[in-house]
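Section 5.1 Outputs to date
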Amino acid sequence: MRAESGQPDFAAFAAHHPDLLDKDLLARFYRPATLASDEARAAWVEPDLALLGLRTDAGRA
């Protein structure tokens, strides 16, 4: 995903990963209280509503 200039192309990236532009994405995985906690503001916390899935595309490692 690079523009003709050889620089990363955000439009192509966004088209390939549309979920990342969803403003409610975190709400699928975290309760509001979890995100607002001191722990979450200081470090990584595991999702408490659903597991984060790894998306794999054919032909990509």
